[in-house]
Amino acid sequence: MRRIYCVGRNYAAHAIEMGHDPDREPPFFFQKNPDNILPAGSDFPYPAASQDVHFEVELVVALAKGGADIPVGSALECVYGYGVGIDMTRRDLQAEAKKLQRPWEIGKAFESSAPCSVIVPASKIGHPDQGEIWLEVNGARRQTGNLNQMIWKVPETISYLSGLFTLAAGDLIYSGTPAGVGAVTQGDIMVAHVDGVGTLEVRVV
């Protein structure tokens, strides 16, 4: 693994719930650290310094190769496969950072903040561009969306991102979350799913 890029507000309904215009504005990105990955089968330790930790289910895109200024038409050639991820967020710390116009790392790039399933090769499942993406907490559905609701599709995201950074094998892209994000507490069980990709179960401890 090399880098983790995350796309902000890539579903219109989530943009609205976060208080933003859902129009197709240019995408923006933030990063998590490679060692923030929480592998499938691991528990999520509730982090320090926060009283409001949120889940955000996402389709994860794993790259087999990269480059700079990748054309949209050839972007999927860079993809190794896909996974199910959860962008865990210390929402109170993120909100404070936003208010003070400071970077988001304190709310996003903390230990175990990037749960991720096993990556499934695109050679087996193709390149999913539609199908349900959802998350349940303790058996209750909290987020439901469809991959076809992405404002910026995976090829467009890879192309745009490669104009800002030189992408490479081992990079992961968390591609955005649908509406319904919310808080968890110790003892909760999150189940995240993307049709055609897989399911990830994570216990909060």
Automatic annotation (TrEMBL):
Q: Which UniProt keywords apply?
A: Metal-binding
Q: Which GO terms describe its molecular function?
A: acetylpyruvate hydrolase activity; metal ion binding
Q: State the superkingdom.
A: Bacteria
The family database entries (SUPFAM superfamilies) matched by this protein are listed as: FAH (SSF56529)
The Fumarylacetoacetase-like C-terminal domain is annotated at 4-205
In its UniProt entry, what is this protein called? Fumarylacetoacetase
**Organism per entry:** Limoniibacter endophyticus
Species lineage, top-down? Bacteria, Pseudomonadati, Pseudomonadota, Alphaproteobacteria, Hyphomicrobiales
